[in-house]
Structures are given as structure tokens and as C-alpha cells.
Amino acid sequence: MSDQDVDDVAFLTGGVAGTDSPTGQPQKKTLYENNGVAACSHNRALCIATIVFALLFTIAIIIAFTGPQSALFTDCTCAGEKPPNYVGGETNLTRTFIPRATNGQIFPWNNVRLPTTLKPSRYNITIHPNITTLEVRGQISIEFHCDKDTNFIVLHSHNMTIVDKIIQDRRGHNLTIVKMLEYIGRQQLYIEIKEKFKKKHNYTLKIRFNTKLNKAQEGFYISSYVGSDGEKRFLAATHFQPTFARTAFPCFDEPNFKAKFKLTIFRDRFHIALFNTPVVNTDDLGFYMGTGLLRDDFQETAEMSTYLVAFIVCDYTNFRNLTDRGVSVSVYTPPSFNEKAKFTLDTATSALGYFEDFFGVPYPLPKLDLVSIPNLSKDAMENWGLITYRESTAVNNPGELSTSIDQWITTTITHQIIHQWFGNLVTMKWWSDLWLYEGFTTYLQYLGVENYYPEWKMLDQFILDKTQPAMALDALVSSHPINVAVHDPYEIETIFDTISYNKAAAIIHMLRNFLQEDSLQNGLNEYLSTYKYTTAETKELWNTFSKTINHTLDVKAIMETWTHQMGFPLISLTKEGSTILATQKRFLLSVKSGNDSVLPKSKYDYKWYVPLTFITSNDSESIHNVWMNMSDVSFDVDPDIKWIKANTNQSGFYRVMYEEEMWHSLIKLLKKNHTMFSAADRANLIDDAFTLCRAGLLNATIPLELSTYLIKERDYVPWATAIEHFQNWARRMSESLPYKLFLNYMRNLLRPITKYVGWKNSKNHVKGLLRAKVLSAAVLCELNETITEAKVLFQKWMLHNETLDSNLKEVVYSAGIKFGGMAEWQFCWNAYNSTSNSNERILLLKALGQPRGDPWLLQRYLIETLDKNTIRPEDVKVVLAVVAANPEGKLLAWRHLKAYWPTMHSLFGNSTSMMGSLISAVTAHLSTPYDYYEVTTYFNGMNVESASRALEQSLEIIQLNINWLNKNKEDIYTWLRKNVT
After folding, report:
1. Is 674 one of the annotated binding-site residues?
2. Is 128 known as a binding-site position?
3. pTM for this entry
4. Which of 244, 319, 743, 845 gives a 20 to 30 Å CA spacing to 87?
């Protein structure tokens, strides 16, 4: 048997070829024959025993200090020597780690990152998925270039069988493969050759492989939908971000290894196949290849990362449009949804044209397809030229869904189209910079929609949707910096949260304001032009912006104070004569804020470059700018000003604390003429006042006095901001003395605005959002007029099947269940189980958690979450959150999570970040010392894996709730008794 055969046998059998015993040594005769006897004297025995003991002791010492041969330090209990070409450098924080291949041998490459000595340039993929058997047969040819002499390749492969492998040089000569090893832990494949790959030479690796369509929503997976005829239909789709391309074909599955891709796919004639690029040829293979098989060959792609590759086999039909430049835009949906996809198509076509102009770089591909996928783990995925999105986005006609859903669809599609440039054309080198691409894209989606739907006031809504939630979380001691090193792609799930996405978008909003929009746009244009078809790092974008503004600002230095340290500043303003002193200190909600020793150290000492903006009573039209360069600052104003409003239009990521006299001046102006401030400024004042009260820096009477102006407010963003804080106050006080009076106060404020929005549909987009928000709040605080109207509409729907206005469904469903009984709840439960409309199902899930006075119904509802065939795992959080927000259900939700924690863990499998979101949802409104004790005790000593940050934040929030209630409930009660009739 040749050396090659020996190694192949070793790989295929999972053992060490050429050995006769489990230890890898030839079998020898035993020391004694079967009947042999060994004898020695007493002294000799003592001597031998002493020698043996000393020898064993010496071996033990050697093992203890040389480390990595014990089972504690390796994946395998068997010991082995490091191969001569072993590459280390991967050290765990607590121990040296030596990986082992599937056959027990030490895996020669010990690093989560692939070596950079070999770089792929082109993939030729041939693949045949059988949607019936789920079997997939494939063949791949990877052309690569050698940058440094080496004799091995390391690439990614997971859950596939390698049938054959060949490596050829540029002349087509086969190189001798002497070893192939697989390390499952990092999903890596190691192939060693007898010769060397020579520097500056090109080679080709060819692999034939078999795998299966995945049943989870990752990699190349099977999905299904129910057709108009009631039959279940199947399709195969891909989702490769961040590390799932390796489950579909062997590849260099890191974003910096960009290459061109060509695909050939076999399918039956009843399906179509889609790829990142258009099909260039279709051959009928005849019946000798299978019943009616066709082969599609697709155009080669531009250089791209593996996570952006996508292919789909389905029976969809499509709508098609052309941009002004002639780019084909198509929306593919199941046939029954086809007529409902036009809105998505129009949105995509408009967005593609707008961002071509905005970026100053033509869309680089000949087509853009958008494909509706019934089961998708994300809202959408930006695969280059082949965007996939969750089914609900397709089933849309203007007017059929609510205003908020229309807006969600528009922003979601816009987000993915922006990624075609910012993320796809230019890609991050490594996942540590994902926050930048997602942050920019999240912000630019609002900028884009603001441009083609200016009446939607998207930049005001950005403050509500992104800035405020990010600031709420980033004010916790348990927050984290935006820029956190990602050593392993699996860490992405734990790091990229509200901070990394929303805060990233918010600081980019701030960047745009101090650079001005033209400079931001010009910088992005130059960045995309310079780095197109390649990868880049964050610092290269910051440097491009500095260059764009002629280095008048050091953008990198400014932005790193916001990305490399957690939190944000509280800017305190004090006035003496004509001088304003602005000081900065990190803002923390926690009671621990006075104890700096509990905080992680920051090389910036928790100081920031702050672009402080303000207007004054003497000149409310002109926005003034002052830079706080990681320091305090003084500036002059007219000595007779009555007020100053800082952080104009909430353009900066910081909070502002005024002197008490200044707060009263601002409140007085709001009551007299609130339109002196923009809607964004009014929302900012509300948010700052309530949050500063939560932190114990402002007496509760200040936000209460400020909120009295709302009786005249008619704009969406200030009302939405106030309602969020009102509802949080109500939930915290649900067991306290001020609760009933506070609900009465809310009713007094809401009564005028509910009359203003009314019950009739309006073509005004923002008014539609406002109507849904205030009527829902009116139901929660039990405003009789709203409840009566909503119950009438519910009965008409329940008893007479009358159609409800899409913008009123959530209000009507909630009122019907909250103020109804078992019959109303059961009717909605039946409606949930009988509809296939995913948006309708979410609305019903939210409403079903609203019952009052019947804990049995809430308990029954929670039990239903354990059946994944009834409530989808991804919707379990919705149920737990709405029950926990119900004053009568918050303890039930917590007890349910405790009782079924192992069940939930098994339900979500590897998605431990979902477990973190469940903890956050269930504990958000707990506010007693016993609640804190309960949560702490239950999770004490438990390994919650990537949910640990969410657990830490949840405990901090419960403690905040306890402290806030103890400090403020008496002042709130006194104020309410004086001001509420």
C-alpha cells in the first residue's frame, strides 16, 4: 500500500493507518508467558518500587509543567506529538489549546483565522440539490494564488462528505496529496501536498462532495410555503452570513478572501434557479440525467465575499422593472403573492436609482432580484444582486397593511439596497468592523426614505427608533463599547446588539451633522471608489472623511472616543452672567455611578469630543456650535437670554442637564408656545427630563410639569417619546399608591389627542402612526371613550366579519381582549391559527397577552409557546414580552421562564442570544427587592453562555426600578394629588 493510500485510509476510517494496536504501536509478546512467574527478594522489591515511584513522580511533574498532552487540555484523551509543520499562536485565555482532527491526529493549523499565504481568485461551483430527498451533490474548482511558499492549504468545510480531491498547477499537472485532515471544532479542512506551493504561482483545487439541505434557516436549506391550492410547496434557499457558506461548498469563508464565482446548477423543469448574476445558458439534459433535468449556467460575479453568495431553487413567478440606467429589478414571490409585490418592486427601483446618485458609483451588477423567503432567520439579507427577505415583506399592497408595516417594508428594502455598495462593493476585512457597515446602512436608510418620502419625517423618527433605545441601554454600567474585538465569528451573535447597531447609527447621524451632508456624501463616494471590489477597515473610512474636509478635523480621533469606550456624556450647563459653562461626565443610570472603581478602564478616561449645539431665546433660528475636545468649555451668550436649548434636534449622542431655573424657563415656553421648538427638540427635552429623573438627578416633578404641555401637542415623535416613558412609569408603579392617579393623569393628557386623530383613516402617513400610538396608549390606561369605540369595532369584526382598518387592528384587538372575556380571547386565538399572514399573526400575538382579571388565560397562553408548531420559536419573545408588560402577567411570565428554561434552551438550539432577549423581555418591568432576589437566585451559578450580558443588564434594570420607585413614588403621589382632578 502506498503512502497516499495509507493516508487516505486514515482519513476515511478516522483512525491511524498502519498500526496494529489502539496505541499506534505494533503488538509485542507479553513480558511473561501464560504460565510464567516473576519472583524477587524483599529488598529488591523495595528498591524497584522506589525507582518506579520516583519515575512516576518525575513523569507527573513533566506532564504538569509541559501541559498540553492531558485530556484537560485537548479535544481527545489520546496523546500525540505535534507535527513538524504545526502552526500555533492560538492560546485560550485560560489554557493552551491543541485542536485534534476527526481521526485523533493533532490538527496542524491552530488558529480560528485561515492562513493568508494562499488567496482564492475564482470559484467554479456545480451543484445539484434534490428537493425531494434533500441530497446535494456538488463539485467545486477553486483557483488560488500563492503569496508565500507553503506545502498546505487550510480552508473551511462543514457537514459534508469529500468524495474526491485533486490539486493541479497552472499547467494542469496533478500534485501529490499526502494528507487531508478535518477539524470539526473550527470547521476547517487541512490538505497537505508532497511538493510545495511556490510563491507567485497559481494552482487549482478540485473537490467533489456530498451534503444535505439543511432543515435550519442557515447554509443551503429547505423551506416551504402553502400555495393557493392548499398544497405545501418546497424550495431551496441559502443564507450564508456570517459563516454558513462552508456548509454548502468548501471555501475560504472569511470576508477578506474575495473572489469571483461561477455557478452551474441542476434543477427540474418545474423550478427556476436564481443566483447573484443572470443566467447565461440553460441546457435540457434529457431524461438520461433524470426526469426532465435542466442545467443553468450563470454569469461570473465580480469579486465578492463568500457570505454574500446566494442561490435559490423555487417555483416562483416575478414582477420586473427597469431603473433609468437600465438595471433590471425583479421581485420573486410565490404565485399567490405575485399581485401583492408591486409596492416592494416600486420601492426597490426607486431606492436603487437614488443611491446610485447618492454614492456616485453605478450599481455594479446587471440585475437586482428580491426574493421572498417563507423562513428567514433575519428580516432580510443583502446578498449581492439577490436580496432575500422575509415573506411578510412581499404580501403588501398600499392600504392593505398598516402604516407602520408599510414603513418597515420600505426601510428594510432600502437597507439591503444600500448594502449593495456599502458592505458588498466594499466589505469589512473582518467581522470586528461589521458595526460600521450596519451602522452606516441603518442611518442611510432613514436618509434615503426621507428623500423619497419627505412627508414621513424619517429623520425625526430616527431619533425615536434608534437614538433613544441606544441611549437607554448605553447608560447602564453593563453596556459595552461599539468597537469590540471579534476573535471568532460565533461571537457576532453576542456582541452586535442595540449598542452596536443603533448607537453606531446614532453617532453616524452626529458625524453627518458636524461634517455637513455634502462632506459625508463626498467622503463615502471617495471611499467606495477607492476600495471597490476590495476590503477595508474603519480607520480607512475615517481618514477618507478627514481628507474630504481638508483635515480641518481629525475624524478618526473624534470618532474613536465614541466607538472605543462605552457610554456617553452628560453635558451640564450653568450660566453666570453672559458665560455658559459646559462640563462633561459619563452619564450612568445606575446607583453605582458614584463608584468609578466598578467601571472598566478607558484610555480616554470617559471623555469625548462633543460637537455641542444650541439655540437661545434671543435667536432660536440660528444653531450655534462649540467643540468640547474631551474637556469642559465656556462660551459667551447674550446676558439677557431666558433659556438655552442644547443638543439641537437631538443631533448629538449625549444628554443635557440644565439648572433648575432653566428647566422651569423651558417648561414655561413649552406651555405657552411649544412650536418654538422643533418636534425633535421637544422629544429630546421629554426624553432627557424623564431619563435624568430615572438616574436620580432630577426630581420627578420636573418631567411631570414638562409633560403637562402635551395637552396641546399634535406631533408624532414627542408623543411617542412621552408614551414610552408614561407606560414604563405605570408598569413600575402598578403595585404602588400613585398608580391609579397616574392612569387618570394619562387619560387627561390623552383625551384631546385621541379626538384629534379620530377613528377615520387618513392619507397622512405620520398621522396614521400617531393614531395607532395614542389610541393604543388610551386603551392601556383605560380611557372610556376609546374603549367603547374599540369594543364596538371588535364586535362588528367578531360577529359580522366586518373588515377593520389596518391601522386600527392592534387597538381593536387589544381592547376586545383586555375588556372582553373568554369568547373574545378564543376568537382571536382561532384567528391567529387560521391566518397565514405573518403580520396579522404578530398583531394577534400582541393582543392575546392583554387579558385582565383572568390569570388562567395568560397561563394557558404562555404554555402555548412550548409548542413550536403553534407559535414559531422566533415569536416566543413577542408572547413573553407582552405578558410581562401586563401588570397581571409579569410574575406569570417570570415563573414561566424559570419553569421552562431548559425547554426554551433546547427550543432555540445554538441561538443563545435569543435566550438573552427572553431574559430582558420578562424581567424589564420587575421592580421589587423580592424580584431581584428571585432572578439573582435562579441564575446564580448557571452558565447562560452568550445571554450573560443580557442577564447582567436585566439585573441592573431591576435594581434601577427598585431605587427609582423608592425615591420618587411619594413626590409623584403628592404632585398628582395636587394637579389631577
Report:
1. no
2. no
3. 0.86
4. 244
